[in-house]
Amino acid sequence: MQHASYMDSANDGGADLIFVISQPRSGSTLLQRILSGHPDVFASAETWLMLPQIFSVRQSGHTAAYEADWARTAIHEYLENYTDGEAVYDAGIRAFADSLYGNALKRAEKKIFLDKTPRYYYIAKDLYRIFPNAKFVFLIRNPLAVLASELTTYVKDNPRFLSSFHDDLLLAPHLILDAIDHLGEDANVIHYEKFVQDPDTQIRNLCNQLGLAFDSQMLNYGKTPAPKGVMNDPVGIHKHSTTSTQSMERWREMAEVPQSRHFAQAYLQRLGPDLLDRLGYNYAELWSALGPAADGPGLGITMPWSVAITPSDDWSMSQRIQLRRYAAIAKQDNFIGRMTSYLSIFGFILQHFFKRFVPHRK
């Protein structure tokens, strides 16, 4: 099967590309495996290919040993002074994509490349500008289910690790909705819950939107070879060979543990009713399912959300004190832990005071 380069046909703007965009832990690997069961579609592990290309000319968000700020300035000056402008850079990205996606398609003897990289939520509108003829699929899932999956899969017993997913949890929903609004009719939206409850109807409709002939055998993804590489779901996808509703309501288990209940309630409050409504979920119903607010005696042994979700480099003095209190109480029983925490906090304040205000003697 001969693959036709999308730079060869008057620059057809990614007509043989499908981008799947979502919050991480939204079920995108499942959707990818099902769609890649189509005879014309090929999918790899998450590529992340477009992120460095687009971020390299953004005003922020990209660092490098060679001084990313200088590189960004140099690229913009070069485009302005020696080329026809920024559209040339977009054309360069298309040529880059043609080479890398196109080679994989040629090797696999497929026609359409599906790039499932959830963190493309950062660049969804850029991708739409650069690849106007590509297909864009936005997978939306109950944010509490996303949080629960992050906690059980990655964070586990180390709440401080939650900050690694700050943007995935707090920024991604806003950017995804913004991109959906921007793309308008070109945004193909599918909700995880409807998808796993009625996969035949949902995938049939999605295939129709993507211009693919639906085949019910796609739903039995156990027959579809798994992508090679570690950039995939390390847990859930291997438990079944067809869609399952087993994990759809598992987020409710967060209500049984004070720490996860506190995180869930704080997360809901940060997102707010309006955003939840735009995503397709009812704030009051989700809040009610979590039970009573995480306060009283149990709160002393929970790491505050405001600390856990904030990268350690950005912690305030108050947040550092809260962390020391949490760590001391979590390590020992409540009474001894509290006493230890007070001593630890007092020592921390003294240390900070001497570092800041007392001159160092040589």
Low-confidence stretches: 1-10
Listing every helix as H and every strand as E from the N terminus to the C terminus, the arrangement reads EHEHHHEHEHHEHHHHHHH
C-alpha Rg (nearest Å):
24 Å
Strand content: 5-15%
Q: Mean pLDDT score, rounded?
A: 87
Largest sheet: 5 strands, parallel
Measured as a percent range, the helix fraction is 40-55%
**DSSP helical segment count:** 14
Intertermini distance: 75 Å
For the largest sheet, list the strands in their spatial order: 2-3-1-4-5
> Structural class of the secondary elements?
alpha/beta
The geometry reads as: globular
SS elements, strand count: 5
What layout of secondary structure does this protein have?
Blueprint (H helix, E strand, L loop, with lengths): L16 E6 L5 H8 L5 E3 L6 H6 L12 H15 L3 H23 L3 E5 L7 H7 L4 E6 L2 H13 L10 H18 L3 E5 H6 L1 H12 L47 H22 L3 H7 L15 H4 L8 H15 L2 H24 L5
Helix pairs in contact: 6-10, 7-10, 10-11, 13-14
Q: Could you explain the architecture of this structure?
A:
This protein is of the alpha/beta class and 362 residues long. The longest helix has 24 residues. The radius of gyration is 24 Å and the shape is globular. The termini are far apart.
Descriptors:
disordered N terminus, 5 strands, single chain, five-stranded parallel beta sheet, globular, 362 residues, 14 helices, alpha/beta
Brief digest:
With 362 residues, the chain is α/β, with parallel strands linked by helices.
